[in-house]
Amino acid sequence: MLSLVVRNGDKLKSITAVIDTGFTGVGVLSLPIATIRELELSSSYRDRATLGDGSEVLFDSYDGMVIWGGQY
């Protein structure tokens, strides 16, 4: 598990994340909708993903910044 900070402007939220070692995509962090709302993240687009069982789902993508180990 890792400790991260998610940022939107002057709003910051510390979270604990788990790395999905089976994930083959790039740069995706899943957040609870409560965190998305708390940080007032802006929705940028909808996308499709294929889950481990082969099924496909639609998801909303939001803009924000992740701070990990003091780096943006």
Total number of β-strand segments?
5
Task: State the separation between the terminal residues, measured CA to CA.
Answer: 18 Å
Into which percent range does the helicity of residues fall?
A: under 10%
Average of pLDDT? 89
Unreliable spans are none
Largest sheet: 3 strands, antiparallel
The total count of helices amounts to 1
Strand composition percent: over 45%
| Whole-number total of structural domains | 1
Q: Which strand order does the major sheet show?
A: 2-1-5
What Rg is obtained from the alpha carbons, in whole angstroms?
A: 13 Å
Shape: globular
Order of helices and strands: EEHEEE
Structural class: mainly beta
Protein name: Clan AA aspartic protease
Organism: Microcystis aeruginosa NIES-2519
Characterise the protein shown here.
- A hairpin with a 2-residue loop joins strand 1 and strand 2.
- It is built from one helix and five strands; from the N terminus they run E-E-H-E-E-E.
- The protein is mainly beta and 72 residues long.
- A three-stranded antiparallel beta sheet has the order 2-1-5, with no helix packed on it. Strands 3-4 form a two-stranded antiparallel ribbon.
- The relative contact order is 0.29.
- It has one domain.
- Helices cover 8% and strands 47% of the residues.
